[in-house]
Amino acid sequence: MKIAQIAPLTEAVPPKFYGGTERVVSFLTEELVAMGHDVTLFASGDSVTAAELDAVWPRALRLDPGIRDTLAPHFMLMERVYRRAHEFDVLHFHNDYWPASLFARQRTPFVTTLHGRLDLPELGPVHDELPVMNLISISDSQRQPLPEANFVATVQHGLPKDLLTPRERSRDYVAFLGRICPEKRPDRAIRIARAAGMDLRLAAKVDRVDEEYFETGIKPMLGPDACLIGEIGEGEKSEFLSGARALLMPIDWPEPFGLVMIEAMACGTPVIAWRHGSVPEIVEDGVTGFIVESEAEAVAALDRVHQLSPSRIRATFEARFTARRMAENYLEIYETLARPRVGRLRLAV
After folding, report:
1. 68: helix, strand or coil
2. Rounded CA separation 347/218 (Å)
3. Of 20, 76, 245, 266, which is most buried with the most CB atoms under 10 A?
4. Start and end of every Glycosyl transferase family domain (predicted)?
5. Domain chopping of the chain, boundaries
């Protein structure tokens, strides 16, 4: 098939550091190419891919100090794809509601994966006003705030099978991976690790919008037993996660998916996560980790992680969360959309 993948321009594909959406777009794009499909990736010019790259902007917007209006390049992105739409069998957007109005007015079938939270009050009216789009959720729980939206499938994320692998090393700390922000609750992670008598390492970035939260709420809590090691790249994650007794994910928000959970599983590392959002769909309680609802439960779970088998956790990852499985699921959707008279119809869930 001739497939267009349309990524946000905020980060490169794949991102240099943090960036869940662009990382997943990369995994999907490369897997589709490996399966023999003709793929064009619309993304920033510093992206790296085996697909044809249509570089809409020279570099990732987050790394471009000269950019002031980040909406302008995204308008360019939509127009660029529109002009080339006739070249493809299907267009796959990863850009929220942006493509709805323009691409409902052309003939090439398109689908949009929603990667973010959907419980923001403004999203309901926006989706109500837009033409019908074929939408894909990344967890069933993600859909709940938009029950009337045209979700045609849920496709969970996947990682390349050998991107992250277990390493032979002692597991002598607890891990926190991602962003320092209120909804990720690093404060809970620090308290949980201390109550369990374990060291905590936070491999996380601090976005500009969260600097005050970090300075006033988290930095004073750090110490020799709870250290911030900063943002880490893909090549460092296997070593970091393989050295952890568990990944703590004490979230306080409706997590749409949570890529860090399957990254930990790929390394045979158990996940201890709050029962929010996608967590019950990703973590098999008592198999790949423990689902908890309080700090006391999380401390107790840390006492039990030695009961879980790293090899079984890794096997579960291979069965459920590889990029090949993700790509196959998307291809089934693409093929359905590309059939005559199907691409512009509402599909059955």
Report:
1. coil
2. 46
3. 266
4. 171-305
5. 2-158+322-338, 173-320
Range in 12-21, 153-162, 278-287, 335-344 the model is least confident about: 335-344
Residue 266 three-state SS: helix
Contact call for residues 280 and 274 (beta carbons, < 8 A) = no
Helix (H, G, I), strand (E, B) or coil at 141: helix
Token pair of 125, please? 């009216």
**Neighbour-count burial of 197, counting CB atoms closer than 10 A to its CB (0-12 exposed, 13-18 middle, 19+ buried):** exposed
Structure-token pair, residue 179 = 């962003």
Q: Does this chain's domain 2-158+322-338 share its CATH topology with 173-320?
A: yes
pLDDT digits (tens, 9 = 90+) for 55-88: 999 999 988 888 999 999 999 999 999 999 999 9
- Measured CA to CA, the distance from residue 189 to residue 205 in angstroms comes to 15
Q: Tokens at residue 131, please?
A: 């033409």
Q: Which residue has the tokens 């990382």?
A: 23
Q: How far, in Å, CA of 85 to CA of 117, rounded?
A: 28
- 173-320 is classed CATH 3.40.1390.10: no
Superfamily of 2-158+322-338 according to CATH: Glycogen Phosphorylase B; (3.40.50.2000)
Q: Where are the alpha helices (DSSP H) in 7-143?
A: 20-34, 71-84, 100-103, 123-129
